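[retry 2/3] FdhF/YdeP family oxidoreductase: previous attempt timed out, resubmitting with same input.
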Amino acid sequence: MTRPAPVNDIDESTLKVKEPKKAAAGIPAVKIALERGIEQAGVARTARSLLRINQRGGFDCPGCAWPESITGPRKPAEFCENGAKAVAEENTKRTVTPEFWARHSIEELATKTEYWLGQQGRITEPVIIREGETHYSPISWADAFSLIGERIRATTPDRCVFYTSGRTANETAFMYQLFARSLGTNNLPDCSNMCHESSGSALNPTIGIGKGTVSLEDIHHSELIFVVGQNPGTNHPRMLSALKECKDNGGTIVAVNPLPETGLMAFKDPQSVDGLVRGGTKLADEFLQIKVGGDLALFQALGHLLLEEEDRAPGTVVDKAFIEANTDGFEDYVAARRHIDWTETEKATGLSRLDIAKVAGLLAKSKATIICWALGLTQQPHSVDTLREIINLLLLQGNFGKPGAGACPVRGHSNVQGDRTMGIWEKPKEWLLAALDKEFGITSPREHGVDSTEAIDAFAEGKVDVFVSMGGNFALANSETEALEAGMQKAGLTVHISTKPNRSHVVHGKTSLILPTLGRTDRDDKHPNGAQFLSVEDSMSVIRSTQGRLEPVSEHLLAEPVIIARMAQATFGDDHPVDWRAMAEDYDVVRDHISRVLPGFEDFNTRIRNKSGFVLPNPPRDTRSFATDIGKGRFTVSPLEYLEAPEGHLILQTLRSHDQYNTTFYGLDDRYRGISNGRRVVMVHPDDLAELGFADRDLVDVISTFKGTERRADAFRLVAYPTARGCAAAYFPEANALVHRDLVARESNTPGFKAMTVRFIPHEEKQLS
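[retry 2/3] FdhF/YdeP family oxidoreductase: success.
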């Protein structure tokens, strides 16, 4: 039976803490996945969607970007627990109607948590709130688009900002960036700015591509896989199946993480007898519990030890033939890594020299190594240098362009990689702009736009007249929460293209529109030529189709490409070189344009109809070549850098709970960590709690310090947890308020969500006057 939306909000006083789980997935994952689907959407709707998720001819999971097999068969249940939860959130029969907005004022909604807002259901009609009003109220689509066009024409392009969520499909993203550039701005911040921007900043100059260089089959057949700064058991659980297959084929796995995440330790495959009735498969052969921010020191130490081993046994470790033919900068790298300060390295990493040497031995023997990473490495001041050091290790042993080897940045959100491929970027390359101009007869702007972090300043300085958010929840996704929310309320018009209520709708501009859109699972058939499909790109550069088949919850929903086209028509009128109507009516028209603009998409409309999709070119993987400015892979040299906390402080990182995807909360049960019914918690090693003079479950205010300034987040519960010493962890986005606007990764400008220096003070309840 379906359940109604919750009336009560989170009650942090009911927090429960148990022992962390020993293995991920298994029967509990199956049970919870089905329960969540049925309580949101009922039996029939849940069954119809789960049977099509990630299947050939079906729809792509709206959760993570982990790939499916291209050539082999797919499992009947080609989804994980959290994928099923993501689908349940979209399939829900709960609806947010005009009556909801009439009942709840902005003042009231501002007191609600993101969990409560998201659980209310799917938005059914467009709504507006004007300056001075207290409630959203209905507006027709025609009037909404007319208002958008009027406000855009009344300002200048540089005062318009177009944000993109990773959920956006390829065709939508292409039209969206075309709209912005037709208008005359590159203000195209996106969620990549806040997650894997550091990966692109490190990979493009060193290997000539900002994406991973491996396939799913490489994961299965690798000799050695590093999983670094990553929690696959929660954030992309189907990766556990791939790691298990690697183990079954004789591979070795090394986990590097500040927390002993359950998914890295053992996996109970719910689609196998062993996973259902036995103890499952041990995944990590070695676990390096590293300090937050110590990974650069670790990879430098590993490089040093590999060179030492090569000296002892020449020709057994370093692939000199590959290096001489394909790389540059090797001699400088060798000179830099010849010597190492082990005292400093152990301090930086929290690891012993013996533990590092043991893993170096595995690396020296491996002939096919993959290094995987996620946000644990990308959200620190020295993130780009850390990732370059990973590339050094891979180049050193020739781990590009051979089976089972390569770099693997694991993207979080489905199609976040595809959005960048389609041109969603504030710093576009000249070749892209020239191709757009030639194809459409426009003149694209050449001046760089604002990224997600720079948008905070633009809001604060009153430089945003129109803000359009294609999905997402910008207010809670970024740093400096309090300042960002205040800044967003200065904007003249905010436009949110959304499926469900979220915090950004509450901290809106002077005028705000919410435009309800179709989701991945919804049927998109209001077109002259019938039902349409879209495409996405996974973490391994595979382009595949996605098509929903469920009846939308409201007849008033529009597809995202249609919304973009109608905004453009309302802005530009009929006298514009781009035929927006044709693209909105038939997505094949969009794909034809893409095929002429973007390399690798030739004959797009034919190839996308292959039910397994197609793979984009990838020179390091395909031909062991590197499209850098020098035509070679580049070794780099970076100084040792790590995060240090002064006395009385810890280094805090943010992370997701198991019942969460980005700013969407499926529930309140972080099952693997044993934490439930609350989110305002800080996980701290018991010894650190004792040294700081606190006890388990103390209620504290958290103070972050950065360059002499402080940020504060009140009423967090301390939880004794086996984190790395000197480190702490709290949930995103509750702890985002602690991230100073200027605490960012150099070069990528990614917020330092894994780099906060914090202290605790006892929380005192504010007395009512």
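[retry 2/3] FdhF/YdeP family oxidoreductase: Residues 55 and 712 are 46 Å apart (CA to CA).
[retry 2/3] clearing retry counter.
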